[in-house]
Amino acid sequence: MMEWLKRFFKPKQNNFLQLLIQQGEFTVISVEALQAYLKKPNEKRTVQARQVEKDADEVYRILVHELEDSFVTPLDREDIFALSRALDNFIDYVYDTIEEMVIFELEPFPAISEIAALLLEMARELHLTMERLLDHPRVANEHARRVKKLENQVERTYRQSLADLFQGPEDTEHIMHMLKCREVLRHLSNAADQGDMAADIVMDIGVKWS
134 near 13, Cβ under 8 Å? Predict the structure, then answer.
């Protein structure tokens, strides 16, 4: 009976860590899928990006179930959940960019590629943050700070892109095109916001451990 209780209450540290690392990997893969689509928009690339989003959702669901089944966790339960949710939202917004480009029948344009390049850097930093989170929290914080700097770059690029986009509308069709472009760019900005949120959570964890 005691052995069963020990197993029941044993922290699933490795499980949570590996699941967060997997989510970090999926942030990178999702942006790479976006970049592949931007280089050659077609149904095959869309399907590949959709599968990445589905696979990432599965990891998120598993982590949530692990939380529900665990009485003891290596980090605060709320921090694990909030961090996992922010990473999942990042991936969702990246995929939403492709989905809306397809729906709106939009061709890739320079601002998307520019922001996607910044998001790829951010995703790589998020992945490194997850890998260092438990064993090297101070290093994880350094990567988190880089994520926040990249988010600022994304926001500057996003605002400048909007300013450029809304200069000199010519006719109704042009205005509709601008609105569609704005909506797609907004998803990329939202993805960056979620990356920034994940970085904040990591830095909060670092404060709790210091």
Answer: yes
Cα separation, 191 vs 87, in Å, equals: 9
The pTM for the full model equals 0.90
Q: What is the pLDDT of residue 97?
A: 97
Two tokens, residue 57: 């959702």
pLDDT at 160: 95
Structure tokens at 96: 């939403």
**Rounded Cα gap, residues 96 and 189, in angstroms:** 12
Closest CA to 151 of 91, 191, 201: 191
Q: Find the mean pLDDT for residues 136-147.
A: 94
The b/e string for 7-19 (b: 16+ C-beta within 10 A; e otherwise) is eeeeebeebbbeb
